[in-house]
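Homework help thread (please don't just give me the answer)

Our assignment gives two proteins as sequence + structure token strings and asks us to describe the second one. The first is just a warm-up. Here they are:
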Amino acid sequence: MSNERRVSPRMTEDLHFNQVDGPPRYARRTDKPVQYVVIVNAAGAVIGYVWANDEDDAAGWTVRPAGGDEAFNLGFIWATKLHEAKARGLAPTAALAEMIRDSDPSASSCVQAGSLSESPSLTALKELAAK
């Protein structure tokens, strides 16, 4: 018997990665001003913001940490709406307008009426969300 450990070839062979395309997505960053809407839960508490900038083809969901797990979980709905809008070829601000138009106040979360605003930057909006 040998004291030498046998090394599986699976542990020593080179790995080959193939890059694949995923679904279309808006850019997640911009250094330009963003339009945004306030998202509230069923009780009317602010849970986050959906923002957009056409110039950089950017849009996203910014959670309000004070909203806790509920805000984080409900953010999935809004991120999904953005992904679907991008897949249909909508510009970021057109996606935002669609969300405003289709918002349902009886849902678990919705766009706060009259909340469409502009922030000088995404950083400023994230600072607002952190308050």
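The one we have to describe:
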Amino acid sequence: MGDGSVLVILDLAPLVRHGVVRREQRLAEGLNAVELPTIEEQRARPLVMVVDDSITMRKVTGRVLERHEYEVATAKDGVDALEKLHERVPDLMLLDIEMPRMDGYELAAHMKGDPRLRDVPIIMITSRTGEKHRQRAFDLGVDRYLGKPYQESELLAQIGEVLEQHAEAQRAREPDHG
């Protein structure tokens, strides 16, 4: 403060996310399963994982998503994302192509080959806007492809459309109990 006193400032979003992760871990361990809601009930907001080696892109995109009621997880490259995907499977992934250790193409290919991850919709956001890059992404099973810099309204529209299409596809796969 101006008078030299110290004021603690809490960034609540990571604290809230950490609390949700701890509850999921206890559920996985079978502890307090009766008292705690299921993981599906906890996820009132869709979880979007942002995978980009640029900390600026992760922070800016994360803030945009959080302002629009999405839960956000981030990873700095494909290897980091795979480690985090062992803990939680997102509802959607925003994925850069050019990253160290494992690029976006490699991660997308790995996800599409994994039964646990193959249905996660992927939107690539990249500075590589050439047709050959776009076609390679679609051949791997990527749902949408956006160039950088993206328009916030366009990103949010694409996310909304992809999540709705994914939800419709899941409903169509469910057996009819009516």
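TA reply:
I won't write it for you, but here's a hint about the kind of observation we're looking for: Residues 32-42 have pLDDT under 50 and may be disordered.
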